[in-house]
Amino acid sequence: MSIIAQHGDIFIILACAFGFFMAWGVGANDVANAMGTSVGSRAITIKQAILIAVIFEFLGAWLAGGQVTETIRKGIINPALLENDPQFLVYGMLASLLAAGTWLFIASMKGWPVSTTHSIVGAIVGFAMAGLGIDAVGWGKVGQIAASWIVSPLLAGSIAFMLFKSVQRLVFEADDPFAAAKRYVPMYVFLVGFIVAMVTLTKGLKHVGLHLEFVESLFIAILIGLALMGIGIQREKRISRSKRKSDSFGFEGVERVFGVLMIFTACAMAFAHGSNDVANAVGPLAAVISVVQHQGAIDGAAAVPWWVLVLGGGGIVAGLVTYGHKVIATVGTGITELTPSRGFAATLAAATTVVLASGTGLPISTTHTLVGAVLGVGLARGLAALNLRVIGTIVMSWLITLPAGAGLSILFFFMFKGIFN
Questions:
Q1: What is the pLDDT of residues 2-20, one digit of tens each?
Q2: Cys staple from 288: which of 15, 199, 205, 417, with CB 3.0 to 4.6 Å?
């Protein structure tokens, strides 16, 4: 009787527990990135941020989380090398989940915004090198993922820079900034709804059984964008033109209009994050379930069971509610001073980058993307607007993440091997 047949139920229970722990870490650390700009710019309170994230992270994970999960699970290791020892894949994935979850727990306690994608990829690479040798790692795929960690902050930073410049030109440099804000903000709301809906419809919903043609997706995305734009216009009508003595340019009312917009971008960012980063928790979990159910046969393209995405979404929500506030403070107020208009540019740029990556199946780092976007907005106001000391700490924590994930994973891999073999 094989080890997998003998201990199958135990493996699945452990995988679910560690997957939930990893998802908790994603919520405590990464969701804070998604919400940090909205809270930091004081557009929404921390309670509102948690409520938005609970709903939209969960929807993103469930509706659009399947595509990236495939990449994480079967791209990094060569499955052919595991056919004789399928239990090694089970040990490795359990070790990876526990290692990445442990590192995220430590980082969240310190308030460091580290990358959950780095954590899990580092952990999987660590176990593969220790258990199977250096040749077992699909270095081409790892290289592709690593390249996306550099490309994503550059792309998000560039989009944020251009968005904030467009806001400055169209709104803040207008003769009447408040009237200009009321005129142009609905267009930005439409953009938020359209981009997220388009990417989700074209790429994200296949595993739910919804297959739409491109033209159908385009039509529905435009309708969703217009519906959100209508809600935005209604919300705007309640905002009066306030003017204080200290506010000589009349910008306070303008920022309040952008505060309405930040609610929409916060929802978009939470959805985008859930769709991309749930893979970090449920990819290895789905791999364990697949191997146990197939009696040790390694099926590279096994479907992700719906309840696994629900478990991942639940873990993310639990992490955010219990520990998310620490990293929210770092991202929201530590890097640069944010106002609703700056926060909007950063969040929309990050959300756009993440949903595009999620749609193409590339597991990018939401952390790098959002920090890149916040830096882009800061740079639009000059280098002096950035807190270089905080940025230095963040970059240091990024550099430690890969080796930390790999080292812990190797330790746990040999521990599981010793227990079950």
A1: 777 677 788 888 989 998 9
A2: 15
